[in-house]
Amino acid sequence: MVKLKLSLLGAPVLGLLTCVACGSEAPEKGATPPTTKETPAPNTTTPAETPATKEPAQPVSASTAEFNKRVAAYVDLHKKADGQVPSLKRTDDPKEISSREIALGDAIRSLRADARPGDIMTPDIAEEFRRLIKKDYRTRSREEQKIFLDEIPPFRPTVNQRYPSEWPLATFPATLLDVMPKLPDRVEYRLLRDALILRDVKANIVVDFILDVY
Amino acid sequence: MPRSILRSVVAAALIIGGWLAAPIAPMAQDLALPLKANSVRFGVIGDNGTGEKAEYEVGQQMAAYHEKFPFTFVIMNGDNLYGGERPQDFINKFEAPYKTLLDAKVDFFATLGNHDDPNQRFYKPFNMGGQRYYTFKKGNARFFSLDSNYMDPVQIAWLEKELKASGSDWKIPYFHHPLYASGMHGSQVDLRVILEPLFIKYGVDVVFAGHEHFYQRIKPQQGITYFISGAAGQLRRGDIKRADFTAVGYDQDQSFMIIEIADKEMTFQAITRTGKTVDKGLIVQRPGADPIVVGGATPASPTPIAKPSAPGGATSAPAPQPPK
Lengths: 214, 324
What we know:
The complex is a heterodimer of chains A (about 210) and B (about 325). Chain A has about 210 residues and is mainly alpha-helical.
């Protein structure tokens, strides 16, 4: 019987309270919220229109604060790169999506050509992430662990590499997301067979990674 | 044999041969939906984007049903494009299989699966408005397309706000990972712990998901009927394991669903790529009480039962497969 982690029901709220790195990406130029052609949808909204919850920030550890600072610096770099290439926007033409994703990735790579593993996930925060992931993993039954690992891509990451499109983007456990430092929209956590990566969502590149996480 | 007779025989053979060789358009065999005036009509597909023959056949069957049941949009439960997102993949795995429907101005509303690059949200025909999760309204139903790959606190807060604000009779979340399932991946308990309390609190009656490559209808769980429609391209034959929560399951062929909502009634039908109905039924909302669910066509062929698993629990999985 799978153990329901009911104690985590309040975690999403707590997660918002501790969100120090949250950032809502501006709506894409020209983007329109999906609406129906049949029925007007006056209260149709998209996440970008949702105002951020304003709660007082909770104290964070020095390692988390340092991590947030480095993530913020990366986001600044991303924005700079984004300004150098045609922006990804809504289009009927899949070639545009592909070419702009690649162009953004190339621009970011050239701006951080000397990036190394651990530049963002420094040893202190890396230890904290390993502790959180191992703890989450060990609360799972052996069956759950097997299912969890079966869905996770086994490739070995390198910094600045394009995330290979032939591999799925493994689901990041929602309960684990609740306890990780919150990230801006442009960056996300993903798990590989034995690694945690930071992935640039729009550029589809590996920003940083740590190994030995289970 | 006189030359004229020989010529006639050859001509007849050519005609018959040509007729046999010509592609036969699928016929919608059975429609179980009432086609009421002003109803909301839509299709459901999931795990479709293989670009293989079966996906095209499902697309043709959907087009055949569209003739009888003119649905105006389709929700996609994720894994819209497998194995690559090059420009030609958007064509071979989406635009071509559903060309007839797209030409008929049927809209598709996608959600992201674990095989989907989130940048699919910029592809206009997926109607995601550039967002990983979004909501839209059709008649008296509001749909919530969620990104179950990455259910972070911001998305959860957004969902709660939108559910709370919605005055629609039907609030219909759909996303890739099923909260209840008895296949290779099993129930997504992590997600269930977070999402189900919101669904109950804000009066959700029906949820759609994919990820498991079969069709499964779950018995109402705390008043909510969960559907898995994840076999519009992929198929994991014989994968449905015994589970107390299963109402109907079908894992012998690719499938899709068509749905009609009229006032407080939702009628559903699950159909294979060859046009067989494997489930159909009715969900009726009641004020102050859980909906009544009436349904259950017998699957066109028996669903094999592999091994028992605890209700809601994870089930065993085979060895890892290379990505498709």
